[in-house]
Amino acid sequence: MSSFIAPRTVIDGGEHRLQRRRVPQPMIVIGVIVLATLVARRLGYKLGGNVVVRCRKGHLFTTIWIPGVKLKAVDLGFARLQHCPVGKHWTLVTPVRVTDLTDEERRFAQEHHDVRIP
Length: 118
Ligand SMILES: [Zn+2]
What we know:
The structure is a single chain. Helix content is about 30%, strand content about 25%. The mean pLDDT is about 75. It has a domain at about 45-118. The protein is an alpha+beta fold and about 120 residues long. The longest helix is centred in the first third of the chain and has 17 residues, at about 25-40. The protein binds zinc ion. Zinc ion binds near residues 55, 57, 59, 89 and 91. Zinc ion binds near residues 55 and 86.
């Protein structure tokens, strides 16, 4: 009488652990941010400090733009939702190539700086 079926498979199935090792990878995130900053700098955008940005209404101003760091703005990658000190409104801003600006525009942007926190 050996109709006994070893319940091994059941045990194995039950022991099947879904150990998803979700390794937090801050190093990779930091690496990507650094790389993005370097690429943007290559393209002529001075990210990583005081950056001239343009809002949706065309106002130019200077802000501190450190990719990945945002205390006063919603970072959407290459555009940010933040307060425009020129038009005094909330808007999407994007970095502007300083070389694309006229001297007057550059001066205007330098004179209009939002709060000095990233
Ligand atoms: Zn504006």
